[in-house]
Design goal:
Length: 140
Amino acid sequence: MNPTLGRTKFETELTVRPDDIDMNRHVHGSRYFDYVLAARYEQMARCYQMSMEEFTRAGFGWFTRTAHVEYKRALVLGDRFLVQTWVQEMLADGVRVDFQMRKQPAGKLVCDGYFYYTMVSLQTGRAEPIPDWIRAKYAI
């Protein structure tokens, strides 16, 4: 494993919106996956200097192969929280991205987990080896 992976953690602050709430008056479990995807979208441009639009123009996309979340405490309407992500592992054709969400301002852990993303060719829809220029951007 690359020794620099997992060392650089990026944060995005989000707020719970009305459409995130389920019938139990807290955030529906599926929305936590959306929060990670929204944070990664924003972080690709701001932190890795490669927007998702640039990534797709190069002919690539990410397919979520595995998603795992451990829920610790609920988020409710209006809560502010930080989504922290980092590349924990780089594979031949994908990455493992770990994450944590912390409620603000106290910083209490809401949930944590990981995603395995496979890089795919948008032309073929098949897995592709990660090119060196993308590896260099993610190995920070």
